[in-house]
């Protein structure tokens, strides 16, 4: 896709030339004289996004233009998140063409201005190729690019920031200010607090220092306030403390102690769910906490020795602690509340390309960006499935050319980018940190018949990652010849070359198992060799080239099945349909995987139908047990073991400049010893950073139904970790609440129903009065009403009851006196139809087939025109018959979605019969799913903290 005309030899054999002459770019996907948009079928769509819980409209824009191949979900997310201009005004973007043009033109103009292209024709080719790749979902820039580039806003292109703070009040207050500015812009930042004196040291005035943990309170309150102003997402921040800081034990305990406070307040009746009215009273909840551990500390843990905590100013040891005991304390805290994670300091700095300019002390909130203080990184991710051919072979040449183009574009963006602080701008322009990565690795492995947790899957992942970063650095070396090396290169030249040789050596050490792995590894070997040769002459343009980010929102933009380095979430997904409605579908990678494994058409269809019904492959007809592992997922019947995630991270980490955003999920039954093993093995495997999350360890998450209380783990000293008892909490109605009474008659049986609501209009109780006091029917209805009321107060969704009780048949049944419900198959059928009409939004009732008389009349008039009136029941019967006759045959594995399901996570809950440990989206109300070290919403693309 690109050739270097500057100093150095390109992969296409272009001759060397004088530095600064720019790049010569060749066409790969496009044709001269034909615009990329001309080869796509476009269509107009209406985007109407509602809150799944109450039916309110969150966003609406009609008539937007997208390619017909883009999914409804991608259309909705891009329209609501990335189109600029006020909705309803002529300035509002209404077509994907406008969005792509806005971004691509800015990159192309900047490339021309800064002499990246050899000729004007090369700039035009660059523009066409970049447009084609974005249009066809081959890659995506990170969200800030889509938000800001080409608009009147500051041209911020980075999603990842690292700040710094010193041991002065001025610096600490400036930390609050800088962090606030970054949060206000929708991004996140991380920093290391270890320069701040501990609470065990003296100030110059003679008093005792407050310590970093005390200043964390102020930063946490600031982040919570800014989050509350934005309302749609929590502030994303990372706080790091070195393991030798004298306040390390207090730091480790901060969130653990607050989690215990949450439990006490919850049990006392306070609303402590995420977004709850009372959760704001709890501290330290707006940051991820990580401890920077050293090899010295980990070896002390291994040997059971002592470890010295050092004063910040003099670096003298002021206290010695039992290393194993401190490590145990970290594991216990993580077991109980998921924090702290670990960052492995010596490993991180051993792979540092610019050590002469300063150590790497911190990371961004998701831990994938690791570089100098006061710096930033812009990200882009490739969609790996776009490079998998129908024959199951990975398109090495196409992938290489794509990496070349994307790295070139990413580097160009630094030329015109704006930054939140002058210090960040100065460092980023001097070191030009980039973060190319990928999404859909899990889907690619499954589609090629590889288990995620297998030597073959890890070898393939390692080879592809090595090819990506090797190509990126080779292109960076060519850019250095065409434009110039990064400003900090001369000072760090020896260290940079050493790290390049480490990457190349790791590539040579990949143990391939199949011909495809070896082919990709060999291609990566050539990229590393060429990059080392060109870099020896030119230097490199970028101090960093690659990271593996969560790819939450942009993963949906590219219609990816899996995010970042993650495996598939589950085998069956929730999918919205064009024109409305939803289906549950078996992942399209499943039949592709079965074909790759040698199964025939009828076998594949039977297996896919089994998966659609059960959500897993165990005992699927005709599927060999040795192939079960190929279909293992992050969640479900055959969830991948925690150490399987660590092994995959270890396989790809040597080929990533930064680190990997990933949280290792552990089952609720996991012990503190399991957490210790994960943290210890991650260090030995060469990972740079890691966090764990044990299911149901946090109160501020939806609670699992049908599970036993949390397990109890005992420490080596005999101290017992608090047992976590996960029971739903009853939300009682206030003493004075609104209510409504309806009188009814079903087949002559009369009664009254009173429905009481919470002040926010959610139904909280019902009372049904029938027959005389003391009669059997009256007693049964009293007990029934009481059971329903208590369940509603414990959080059972109303629509669940409606779906279960409508159409229930028993006497009395027949005509009613209600014009909206003319016939009822039982009293219970009538009651819940009436409740649905009074308390559920239209969208939910439409899925259940429950309409008022006026709504049915309007439907008939709309569908059939004004005709002689027919009984409503006849019309409904005709509609059902016509709909059934016109419905096309569905392919295997496609079923109508349950009306109570709004996301793949909720679909998995339905299949497993227990609640998933994930937060609800604050924008649209659906349950989110994991993406790297945060969560992302399938419905609207919102994230829990990562861009």
Automatic annotation (TrEMBL):
Q: Tell me the ranges covered by the Ribonucleotide reductase class II vitamin B12-dependent N-terminal domain, including all copies.
A: 47-137
A Gene Ontology molecular-function term?
Answer: cobalt ion binding
User: Which Pfam families does the annotation name?
Assistant: Ribonuc_red_2_N (PF08471), Ribonuc_red_lgC (PF02867), TSCPD (PF12637)
| GO BP annotation list | DNA biosynthetic process
The cofactor named in the record is:
adenosylcob(III)alamin
What are the protein's UniProt keywords?
A: Cobalamin, Cobalt, Disulfide bond, DNA synthesis, Nucleotide-binding, Oxidoreductase
Keyword Oxidoreductase carried by entry: yes
InterPro entries with a match to the protein in the record: RdRp_reductase_class-2 (IPR050862), RNR_2_N (IPR013678), RNR_lg_C (IPR000788), RNR_NrdJ/NrdZ (IPR013344), TSCPD_dom (IPR024434)
Described purpose of this protein according to its UniProt entry: Catalyzes the reduction of ribonucleotides to deoxyribonucleotides. May function to provide a pool of deoxyribonucleotide precursors for DNA repair during oxygen limitation and/or for immediate growth after restoration of oxygen.
| Family, per entry | Belongs to the ribonucleoside diphosphate reductase class-2 family.
The name this protein goes by in its record:
Vitamin B12-dependent ribonucleotide reductase
């Amino acid at each position: 896709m690109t050739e270097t005309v500057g100093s150095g030899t390109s992969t296409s054999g272009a001759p060397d030339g004088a530095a600064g002459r720019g790049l010569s770019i060749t066409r790969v996907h496009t044709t001269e004289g034909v615009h990329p948009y001309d080869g796509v079928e476009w269509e107009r769509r209406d985007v109407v996004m509602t809150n799944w819980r109450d039916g309110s409209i969150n966003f609406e824009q009609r008539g937007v233009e997208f390619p017909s191949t883009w999914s409804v979900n991608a259309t909705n997310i891009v329209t609501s998140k990335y189109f600029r201009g006020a909705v309803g005004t002529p300035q509002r973007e209404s077509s994907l063409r406008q969005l792509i043009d806005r971004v691509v033109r800015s990159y192309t103009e900047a490339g021309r201005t800064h002499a990246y292209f050899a000729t004007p024709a090369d700039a035009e080719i660059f523009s066409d190729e970049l447009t084609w790749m974005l249009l066809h979902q081959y890659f995506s820039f990170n969200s800030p690019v889509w938000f800001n580039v080409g608009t009147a806003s500051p041209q911020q292109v980075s999603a990842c920031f690292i700040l710094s703070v010193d041991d002065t009040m001025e610096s600490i207050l400036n930390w609050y200010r800088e962090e606030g500015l970054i949060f206000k812009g929708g991004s996140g930042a991380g920093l290391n607090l270890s320069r701040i004196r501990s609470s065990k040291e003296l100030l110059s005035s003679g008093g005792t220092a407050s310590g970093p943990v005390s200043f964390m309170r102020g930063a946490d309150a600031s982040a919570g306030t800014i989050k509350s102003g934005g309302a749609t997402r929590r502030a994303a921040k990372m706080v790091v403390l070195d393991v030798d800081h004298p306040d390390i034990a207090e730091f480790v305990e901060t969130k653990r102690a607050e989690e215990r406070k949450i439990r006490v307040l919850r049990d006392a009746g306070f609303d402590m769910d995420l977004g709850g009215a009372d959760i704001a009273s709890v501290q330290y909840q707006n940051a991820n906490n990580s401890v920077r551990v050293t090899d010295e500390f980990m070896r002390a843990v291994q040997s059971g020795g002592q470890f010295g905590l050092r004063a910040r100013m003099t670096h003298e040891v002021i206290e010695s602690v039992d290393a194993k005991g401190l490590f145990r304390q970290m594991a216990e805290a993580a077991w109980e509340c998921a924090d702290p994670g670990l960052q492995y300091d010596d490993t991180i700095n051993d792979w540092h390309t610019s050590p002469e300019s300063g150590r790497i002390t911190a990371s961004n909130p998701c831990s994938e960006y690791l570089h100098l203080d006061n710096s930033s990184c812009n990200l882009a991710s490739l969609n790996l499935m776009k490079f998998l051919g129908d024959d199951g072979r990975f398109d090495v040449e196409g992938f290489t050319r794509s990496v070349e183009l994307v790295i070139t574009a990413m580097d160009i963006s630094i030329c015109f980018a704006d930054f939140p602080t002058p210090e960040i701008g100065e460092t980023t322009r001097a070191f030009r940190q980039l973060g190319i990565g990928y999404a859909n690795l899990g889907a690619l492995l499954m589609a090629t018949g590889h288990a995620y947790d297998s030597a073959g899957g890890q070898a393939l992942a390692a080879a592809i990652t090595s090819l990506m970063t090797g190509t990126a650095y080779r292109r960076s070396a060519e850019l250095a010849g065409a434009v110039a090396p990064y400003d900090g290169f001369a000072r760090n030249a020896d260290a940079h070359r050493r790290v390049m040789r480490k990457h190349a050596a790791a590539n040579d050490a990949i143990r391939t198992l199949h011909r495809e792995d070896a082919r990709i590894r060999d291609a990566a070997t050539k990229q590393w060799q060429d990059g080392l040769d060109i870099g020896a002459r030119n230097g490199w343009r970028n101090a960093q080239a690659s990271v593996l980010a969560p790819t939450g929102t942009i993963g949906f933009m590219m219609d990816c099945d899996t995010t970042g380095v993650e495996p598939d979430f589950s085998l069956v997904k929730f999918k919205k349909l064009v024109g409305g409605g939803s289906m549950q579908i078996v992942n399209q990678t499943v039949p592709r995987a079965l074909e790759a494994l040698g199964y025939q058409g009828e076998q594949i269809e039977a297996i896919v139908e089994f998966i659609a019904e059960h959500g897993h492959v165990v005992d699927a007809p005709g599927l060999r047990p040795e192939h079960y592992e190929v279909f293992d997922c992050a969640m479900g019947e055959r969830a991948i073991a925690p150490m399987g995630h660590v092994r995959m991270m270890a396989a790809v980490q040597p080929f990533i400049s930064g680190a990997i955003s990933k949280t290792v999920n552990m089952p609720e039954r996991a012990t503190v010893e399991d957490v210790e093993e994960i943290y210890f093995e991650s260090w030995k495997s060469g990972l740079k950073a890691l966090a764990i999350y044990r299911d149901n360890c946090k109160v501020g998450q939806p609670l699992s139904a049908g599970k036993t209380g949390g397990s109890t783990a005992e420490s080596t000293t005999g101290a017992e970790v608090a047992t976590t008892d996960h029971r739903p909490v009853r939300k009682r109605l206030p003493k004075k609440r609104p209510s409504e009474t309806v009188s009814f008659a079903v087949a002559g049986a009369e009664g009254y129903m009173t429905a009481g609501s919470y002040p926010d209009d959610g139904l909280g109780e019902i009372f049904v009065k029938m027959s005389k006091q003391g009669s059997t029917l009256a007693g049964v209805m009293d007990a029934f009403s009481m059971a329903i009321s208590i369940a509603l107060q414990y959080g059972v969704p109303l629509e669940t009851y409606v779906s279960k009780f409508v159409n229930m048949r028993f006497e009395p049944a027949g005509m009613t006196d209600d014009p909206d419900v003319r016939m009822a198959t039982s009293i219970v059928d009538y009651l819940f139809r009436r409740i649905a009409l009074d308390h559920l939004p239209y969208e939910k009732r439409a899925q259940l087939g429950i309409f008022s008389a006026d709504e049915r009349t309007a439907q008939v008039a709309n569908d059939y025109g004004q005709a002689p009136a027919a009984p409503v029941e006849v019309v409904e019967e005709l509609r059902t018959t016509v709909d059934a006759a016109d419905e096309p045959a569905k392919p295997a594995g496609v079923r109508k979605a349950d009306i109570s399901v709004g996301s793949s996570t909720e679909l998995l809950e339905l299949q497993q019969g227990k609640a998933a440990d994930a937060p609800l989206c604050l924008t649209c109300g659906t349950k989110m799913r994991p993406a790297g070290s945060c969560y992302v919403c399938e419905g609207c693309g919102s994230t829990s903290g990562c861009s």
